[in-house]
Every structure is written in C-alpha cells, then in structure tokens.
C-alpha cells in the first residue's frame, strides 16, 4: 500500500473512531483498550459426533453462555489443524457469533432458512438442533462462499439441509409463509471485526454503512414474507452502527407486523441503544468480537405459497449401482428417497420442497456419483457412518503416521480385504478408501494438507 493510500485509510478510520466515541461516550476508552487486546477464539462441538473427549481440555474453557461451546487461546491450542477438525467434530467460530443461533428457539421439526449462511457457523449449529422432520435451507448469494458453506455442512455429516446459492430475495414468490424460523445474519460493514481481521478496516467506510443498510432493509422485508405467522427471525450483524442495527429493527417494526422479543442480558451482553430488547456485544464487556442481535416474531398474516414437494427420481442404472455399492460395502439400507442429477445421487428427506430454478449445491445428503456400471461414494457419505455401518475400515489414532499420510493424500499399505472402506480417526469417520493392492486414497484433493 503506498503512502497516500495509507493516509486515506487513516482518514477513513478516524471517521469510524469519531462515530464510536459518539456512540459509546464514557465507555469509549475501555472499548479502544480492548481493541488492542488479543482476540479470543472459540469452537463448538458437533452434537451429532460426540467429540468432547477429543478436545484438549487443558487448553479450553467453557463458553459462558453456549452449551457445547468453548473458548481457547490459539497460542496454546490449534484445533483447526487437528484431524478431528476434518472429521467434523467441531466448528471454529468466534464467541460472540456463537451466541446468535442460541438466541432463537429451534424445534426439531422446524423449517428454517439461513438467508446469508456462508461459511456456515450458524447453519451447522441450527442443523444440529433439527430432527429428521426438520429442514434447513442454508443459502448464500456468493458462489465461492456457498461452496465453502456446502463443504462445512458436509464435514458436519448433516443430511437434513439443502444448500442453495442465490440472492435470498429470490425465495419470495417460491416459499412465502413457509418458514418457522429465519436466521438473517446480514452482510454488514463489519465494524465488530476490526480486531479480528485487517480486511475489516480496509473495507470500512461511512458509505459502506449506508449501502449495507439498504440491503438489510430489503432482506428483512423478504424475511417477513417468507415467515409463517408466529414465526421468528433472529437478525444479527457484526457491526456497531445504529443504521445497520437498531434502525433496521425499527424499520421492520414500523413497516411490518412484527413484535420485538426481549433477549437475555447477562455475562456482559449489553442492551441495544434505546432498544433494551436487543443485544450488543462489545469486546470490553464480553470476551468476543462486536455483534448485534434482535429477535422478531411475525404477528401478521400474509399470503402463503405452498411449494411442491420434491419428488424422488433416479434412473434404474444409477439405482442398481447404488444398491450394489451398499450391498458390497455397507451394513446399512439404501436410503428410501433418492434423487439423481446428472449421475450425482442424493438422499432426500420427505419434506424437501421443489425450489424450481433456484441454484442448489446440495439437496440433502450427497451419496456419490453413479458412473456407467459403478458408483463412487462421496466424502459426505463417509462422514455420516459409524464403524458398525461399514464392512471394511481402518481406525488409527489422531497422532498416527497413517492419519498424517492419509491427509497428505498418500496411499497406505493394504492389509485388509478388497473393496471400499472408511478410515476412522479414534472412531470418528474421516474418508472412504478403496483397497486392492494398496489402500487407495479417496480423501478429497481440496482438503489435503502436508
Ligand atoms: C456475516 S456473513 C454470514 C456469516 C454466516 N451467517 C456464518 O455464521 O458463517 C454475511 C453473508 O452475506 C452475504 N451477502 C453479501 N451480499 C449480500 C446481499 N446483497 N444479499 C444477501 N446476502 C449477501 C455474503 O456472501 C456473506 O456470506
């Protein structure tokens, strides 16, 4: 960056600090001090996987408000580098962001939309709380970010989720009045992330605040249409500006028939500005980054658009390939509702809606690809399996040479029987392999590490 760019950035950031001074007044100095402190890292456990024993308990402490959430210092502990991370035992998410999914009551059979879901920190936590009759549509407008979202959903071994890549406004007219709950973690100016990422300070400007507020109003309006009467929306941002937080909530209350619910204020969670019902997280009051949250209930009735249910469809050839694969390699039944798209086979759930032209990245659990007369199982299927579900497996300890070599993409020595099996790490599934003269590596190329 040249000198004039740096001067320009300093000028812009001065505007940010002036705004914060006006907002926080006597609380401004402690806020500035907290910005120079080290950020606190967090993770939460995947409740589908029982990974408690896999954590390094010497270096973590429980999140004060999130059951199954933990805080750690990344100088002492690097959970993201462990093979357990690749087994989907936990999601790494900063402590304030982790609160958002906790502030909305999710019932097992709820239909939930996460409008701006990537990379998936809130979606994975919500999907964990849904039962077999629940449904999550996890969407992101950005194709590259939606791909990461899909990978994170896959790593968690989640099968009740549809991952889409569209402008969330496009759900209007397709799924009106369909959702019990909506997560609107809106695109924002990111002021709360200034301590965490340098990027946030490079992209912040007063104009960005106003541009984001325009988008946020459109999104909250769409959310109103998409909710069932009595349904709830948790609105959140990782920014401090009034324009993107309380003013958006006020806009929603003034223009639509919403009521504002009171969220709990304890352990350093502060009320909103002239809006006691909402929550603000500041780094000098709560061990995490900046966050805003408000919970709204839809009181009004709006026209409902009932979508068609997505009908299972699979060619006889692909079905035969899937059935043969299960018979030869697994001890579980072929899922009942199968959906094939150009050879890619998914296990659907009964309640999946037909989303028409909306771009779908994953329709439930991706099982794998049917080729001419064989089937290649997916990484996501492996991550849902237990040892008793497979006819062949290897189980290696987390710190073993075999696990390190497998993650690097190497083949292993064959000492088992021929066919497909699963590599487990201390009992947690990591990936399929195919054994013949060697254990052929099927760990996805994009995830390999040296
Ligand atoms: C705060 S991030 C979401 C974080 C996510 N909820 C999580 O917990 O991992 C906001 C998301 O909004 C998306 N976004 C950006 N512009 C948007 C727009 N105009 N409409 C809808 N979403 C947008 C971004 O791609 C980004 O992934």
From TrEMBL:
Methyltransferase in keyword set: yes
Coiled coil (residue ranges): none
InterPro entries hit by this protein: Methyltr_RsmF_N, MeTrfase_RsmB-F_NOP2_cat, MeTrfase_RsmB-F_NOP2_dom, Nol1_Nop2_Fmu_2, Nop2p, RCMT, RsmF_methylt_CI, SAM-dependent_MTases_sf
Domain SAM-dependent MTase RsmB/NOP-type: 6-299
Source organism superkingdom: Bacteria
Active site: 238
Keyword set, alphabetical order: Cytoplasm, Methyltransferase, RNA-binding, S-adenosyl-L-methionine, Transferase
One of the GO biological process terms: RNA methylation
Binding site for S-adenosyl-L-methionine: 116-122, 140, 167, 185
GO MF annotations, alphabetized: RNA binding; RNA methyltransferase activity; S-adenosylmethionine-dependent methyltransferase activity
Similarity comment: Belongs to the class I-like SAM-binding methyltransferase superfamily. RsmB/NOP family.
Protein name: Methylase
Gene source species: Intestinibaculum porci
């Amino acid at each position: 960056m040249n000198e004039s760019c740096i001067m320009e950035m300093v000028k812009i950031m001065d505007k940010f600090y002036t705004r914060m001074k006006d907002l926080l007044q006597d609380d401004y100095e402690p806020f500035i001090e907290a910005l120079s402190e080290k950020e606190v890292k967090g993770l939460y456990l995947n409740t589908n996987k029982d990974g408690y024993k896999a954590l390094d308990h010497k270096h973590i402490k429980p999140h004060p408000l999130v059951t199954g959430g933990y805080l750690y210092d990344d100088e002492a502990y690097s959970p993201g580098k462990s093979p357990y991370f690749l087994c989907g035992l936990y999601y790494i998410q900063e402590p304030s962001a982790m609160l958002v999914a906790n502030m909305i009551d999710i019932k097992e059979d709820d239909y939930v939309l996460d409008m701006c879901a990537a990379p998936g920190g809130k979606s994975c936590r919500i999907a964990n709380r849904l039962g077999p009759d629940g449904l999550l549509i996890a969407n992101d407008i950005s194709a590259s970010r939606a791909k990461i979202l899909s990978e994170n959903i896959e790593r968690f071994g989640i099968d009740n989720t549809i991952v889409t890549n569209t402008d969330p406004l496009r759900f209007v007219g397709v799924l009106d009045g369909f959702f019990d709950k909506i997560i609107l973690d809106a695109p924002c100016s990111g002021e709360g992330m200034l301590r965490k990422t340098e990027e946030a300070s490079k992209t912040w400007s007063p104009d960005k605040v106003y541009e984001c507020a325009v988008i946020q109003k459109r999104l909250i309006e769409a959310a109103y249409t998409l909710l069932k009467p009595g349904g709830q929306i948790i609105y959140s941002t990782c920014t401090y500006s009034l324009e993107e937080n309380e003013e958006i909530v006020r806009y929603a209350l003034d223009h639509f028939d919403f009521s504002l619910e009171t969220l709990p204020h304890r352990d350093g969670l502060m009320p909103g500005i002239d809006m006691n019902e909402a929550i603000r997280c500041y780094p000098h009051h709560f061990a995490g980054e900046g966050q805003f949250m408000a919970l709204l209930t839809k009181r009004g009735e709006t026209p409902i658009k009932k979508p068609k249910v997505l009908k299972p469809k699979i060619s006889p050839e692909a079905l035969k390939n899937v059935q043969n694969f299960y018979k030869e390699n697994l001890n579980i039944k072929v899922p009942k509702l199968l959906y094939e798209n150009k050879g890619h086979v998914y296990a659907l759930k009964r309640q999946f809606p037909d989303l028409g032209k909306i771009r779908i990245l994953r329709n439930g659990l991706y099982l794998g690809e049917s080729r001419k007369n064989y089937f290649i199982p997916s990484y996501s299927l492996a991550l849902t399996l237990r040892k008793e579900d497979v006819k062949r497996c290897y189980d290696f300890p987390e710190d073993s040479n075999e696990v390190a070599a497998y993650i690097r993409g190497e083949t292993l020595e064959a000492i088992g029987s021929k066919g497909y099996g699963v590599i487990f790490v201390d009992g947690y599934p990591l990936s399929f392999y195919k054994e013949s003269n060697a254990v052929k590596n099927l760990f996805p190329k994009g995830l390999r590490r040296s």
